[in-house]
Amino acid sequence: MTTGTETPSAEAASAPSASPKQRLSTVQMLHLMRLEMDRALRHGYPISALVVGLDGFDEEHHLPWRRALMPAIFRELKTVTFQNDVRGLGVWTERFQLAIFPHVTPDRLLKLTEDLLARARDLGVPGVPADARFTLSAGIAHNLHPGPMSFDTLVEEAEAGMGIAQSGGGNRVVQAREVERELDKLREEVDNQILEIQEFQSKLFADVESKEELWGNQLLTSVIELFKREPEKSEGVLRVEKEVIALLKCELAAWRETSTASRMIEHQKTIDNLERRVAKLTESLGLTEAELKRVAQMKNIDLGIASIYRNIQGLSAEEAGAEQKKEMLKNVFEANLALRAQLASLS
Amino acid sequence: MTDSKNKKRKDEDEENTFTGASTATAEHEKPEGVLYLGIDFGTSHTSVAASNGVRETISSHVGYPKDVVSKKLLKKDVLFGDEALEKRLSLNFFRPLEILKTKNHDRADFQANLKAAQDLLKEIIRLAKPRKDELVYGVIGVPAQASIHSKDAIIKTAKEALDSVMLCSEPFAVAYGLDMLDDVLVIDVGAGTTDLCRMHGTMPEESDQITIYHAGDWVDHRFAELMVERHPEAQFTIQMLKEIKERHSSVDERVEPALIELPVNGKPTQFDVTAELREACQGMVPPIVEGLKKLVSTFDPEFQKRLKNRVLLAGGGSQIRGLHLAIEREMLRQLGGGKCMRIQEPVYGGSNGALKIAHDMPAEYWEKLK
Questions:
Q1: Do A73 and A33 sit in the same domain of this protein?
Q2: B216-282 belongs to which homologous superfamily?
Q3: Same domain, yes or no, for A53 and A9?
């Protein structure tokens, strides 16, 4: 398998080169990537991975085209890396390209990848017929999620993203974990809506049924009471009573059925309307958010980047030397407290 | 449906601890967040490392347009970093940390420098891209032996821009960031001061820290003295020499010649300043090792050898080529040996460590210092 490696750094990107130089072997480069990953995990800074593959071109006769295309795409990757002012490490093979970017948040990598996809669409490569249009699919992964993370997981996630992008028609970039999360969230929302509707339905019909049941029972009781007024019932009266009650029950059941069915249809219409309104509101909310972002960008409003923490963290008890560090932090705090007191007394 | 409920519960748990900075949905749902900042408020450069993944550094220069004309021309009320340096002739130019970190607080322009420092801090916090709805908690590194007035000035500066702030010694932050808390000597070579700190598993005390003024600025002035002495015809400013130093500084014997152009009566003339630059840089090695010697000799004799072999070189000044080797050579001469290691990220070593301290600090401490 043809492989190549390079650092798509600013310097490398600016260096004119006909074909990528074999500076380090793929194994060496992967080792460096692992080291970068370890450092990112140790120091807690973001690191993102990108896996890029060609859409289609899977037939055997496409192999020479792939061999021509992949280094050219790698050069484009270097260029966009340079343009986006980030640094990273990259390797390429006939099947895919892998790059990791320390200190790069997924948002920045997303932008970089979109630039790459856009450039690749207009790329002409010698050895590949001009009419053989090609597109790229890319997957992005990052280490900013909770839970265990390793270099292998990061690459697997990025590959999964590329897989989703390719199966979705290609020429796109996907963050696998985000897609999964979004899907989970959507599934949860749908589940909740179904639950709410079912509860609404059951409550509605339970009320109706209980009201109808009550009314039917009252009617039956009244008829039975009517027959009870006769102190001594002849056989004929008893037969009539039995037939009247049976007939009444039968009629009540038939009436209840038609009534419930018509009410169900009516309520179903209400539910359909409500569902349609929910869908429209969701769509409208999405459009509003997109518009808000667009306006913010136009006005150069920097919305900022959210911290990866939602609340105060504190030292984990599992961290190495936790007790020693706690003592030191306490000392730092007490020194600050004493300083404030000293400054207050001075002023 | 049971699966769905389980999934819901799992997601609720996950949402509580979700740490993705990239998901717009998560950001919208976020009621509030805490952005931690580790700030290295240096005389020459100010760096920030933030818990949203942003790391930025700017040179510690601030400038305000001198008059209406320059304000119209520059289209800004205040300029920072290299931009301020570049346009300093049209600006009231400040290098505020130089004043704040010294003991000379009776200067007439102290208040103006304090204002400049406040603006610089606000700028570096802005560069860290905090969201409007987030609390910003910061740990700021200060020189090991900063005066009470300097600390006061820095706290006053920081309170304007941060929700809660703590100060800590710069070399301590470096050591904490690298998880090297036992038997380590940290040398933090800044522009204004070089801080030496002895770490022995507890919070360093007064006697564990030494601040000397043989640092970047001292090298610049020494270099200027040597230039005046050996090339009296050359015309230059300290800023020009600083740039030359940043490009060519080295204490290595075998190094490419530092050939530079300086004007002589208006005509650009080439000078070889390799020897002058090396001599100026080399000049700070003996005082640093003197300081190390004090810290080693007053340490438990049983652990002195271990301490000597665990010397960390940090700060912008550590980028002088061969400085760690020169320190080792001087240690061999003065202390009979030792091992000096340069940290991987000289520019962000202090801010990374301060960020780690901020992260590890318990909630109640932050609350009390608001």
A1: yes
A2: ATPase, nucleotide binding domain (3.30.420.40)
A3: yes
Query: Across-strand partners of A139?
Result: A51, A174
Instruction: Identify the closest residue of chain B to A140 by CA–CA distance.
Output: B22
Class of domain B33-175+349-368: alpha beta
The confidence score (pLDDT) of residue A160 equals: 85
Q: Please give the C-alpha separations between residue A223 and each of A232, A233, A243, B133, in angstroms, as whole numbers.
A: 17, 15, 12, 70
Residues A211 and A161 in one domain: no
Residue type, A342: Q
b/e code A319-331 from CB counts within 10 Å (16+ = b): eeeeeebbebbeb
Q: How far is CA B275 from CA B37, B260, B270, B316, in A?
A: 41, 13, 15, 21
In this structure, the answer to whether residues A52 and A137 fall within a common structural domain is yes
Structural tokens at position B18: 């979700």
Q: How many contacts does A have with B, using Cβ atoms within 8 A?
A: 191
With a threshold of 0.80, does the pTM exceed it?
Answer: no
* Lookup result for tokens 């169900």: A264
- Give chain A positions within 8 Å (CB) of B8: 188, 191-192
- Domain definitions of chain B by residue range: 33-175+349-368, 216-282
Measure in Å the smallest separation between the Cα of B240 and chain A Cα atoms: 26
Q: For A306, which of B1, B21, B203 is closest by C-beta distance?
A: B21
Token pair in block for residue A17: 């080169």
Give the angle B316-B318-B324 at the CA atoms, nearest 5°: 175
Query: What's the gap in Å between the CA of A225 and the closest CA on chain B?
Result: 48
Distance CA B183, CA B198 (A): 7
Three-state secondary-structure class, residue B279: helix
3-state secondary structure of B62: strand
Residues A159 and A193 in one domain: no
Range of the domain at A274: 188-298
A145:B167 CB<8 A: no
Over chain A (347 residues), what is each successive 10-residue block's mean pLDDT? 41 38 77 90 89 85 86 91 89 89 90 91 82 86 80 89 82 77 65 66 63 74 76 73 80 79 80 78 69 60 71 79 87 89 82
Are A332 and A340 in contact, with CB atoms under 8 Å apart? no
Could you tell me if residue A326 is inside a domain? no
Q: What's the farthest any 2 CA atoms get from each other in chain A? A: 116
- Which residues of A are less than 8 Å from B172 in CB distance? 332
Q: Is residue A134 part of a domain?
A: yes
Would you say residue A23 lies in a domain? yes
Quick one: which H or E segment has residue A110?
A: helix A106-121
